[in-house]
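From the shared-data thread, chain only:
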Amino acid sequence: MSLISTFVNWLAGFSTTQRHGKQTTLPGVSAHDDVMGISSDAALQVSAVWACVKLLVENISSLPLFVYQTASDGTRSTVTDQLIYQVLHDSPNSRHTSQEFWEYMTLHYVLRGNAYARIQRNGLGDVVALWPLSADQMEVTLMPDNTLIYQYRIDHNVFLFQEQDILHIRGMGNGVVGLSPLDYMRASVDLAIKSQNHTGSTYSKNARRPGILMSDVVLTEPQRTALKNNFEEIVTGGQKELFILEADFKFEPLGMSPADIQLLETRKFSTEDIARWFGVPSILINDAGNTTKWGSGIKEILDGFYKMTIRPQLERYEQAVMKRVLTSRQRVKGYIVEFSFDALLRASAVDRMEIYAKAVQNGLKSRNECRRLENDPPHPDGDTLTAQTNLAPLDMLGKIAGGGDAAKEPISQ
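Structure, as tokens:
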């Protein structure tokens, strides 16, 4: 790329500009000097990257995806007897469980900004399977007629897919492909790798630094060789506990010590910086020094993480599935897909019980509806909607206090 074209791309926003032809998810110009591209394998060896990716992947993939049908009056019912429900909720294909499928898709989404799956349909056009594809092996081409061609390479074979055959979940980008977070955060990951390598190198030498052996005497070549052999362990990390320097020799270390370069602070900053790229509060990846940035407790931190990071990503997934996987016939019938965000509460019995209590006390749910969510058998009298009478109208207070018929009358369903 010439200097002029590089400058023009920088002004135009290369990564966010739409162009016909093969699409790129990489930054057009590097803002950092001497930073090479970081592969997924290399990045995942950084503990902060692994922890952030694992947190996002496992949280998103653990949420069940339901298919609903919306009636004309706005009520929704779960569609469990249709093939689309079995594919999206139970098993996307013959190889993967639902969680395994979304783990693979989310892994590529959070690292590469794009997740792909091949849509397999029957003769009626209904989806029968979804097969995940690697974002690293996919090339997307915008044709002159503004249609998209997906080119997938596996081994020595190349497969071409049309737009309607691919479930493409794209992150923020130019509207055709999403930007690759891993390539944009390469400087941050590179700093983490270099600081980790420097730490390992320092400890491998017993925390000793290279240096100069100084003397006022001019030595012969054999004397220099002998000295080097005798005192090499000073800088290479030998196991001797006592080194003797004779004839006014002095050892002067070179370079900066780990304390001088604030190595521990650098590694701590790298953890916070990488967590920032992924939108993950660093406390959630065991960075104990940042407990108060998102609230006074872990509940506030988790609430912010779910609302500001997890929920927007789930919206992308849901809308992509409805646009690409559902047929036009199913959309006309009012089919929608939605992740059950309440599944995140399964680990907290206290939160679940509090929500159930409020729903029952305010007549929003019956007791049997809450019991079903806990896999408990229904109660014979549990289908009646009830409510507390604290906020009863003034003209009903006497009747309610006296235990009249009005106090016994349940809320109509």
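The chain has a mean pLDDT of 79.
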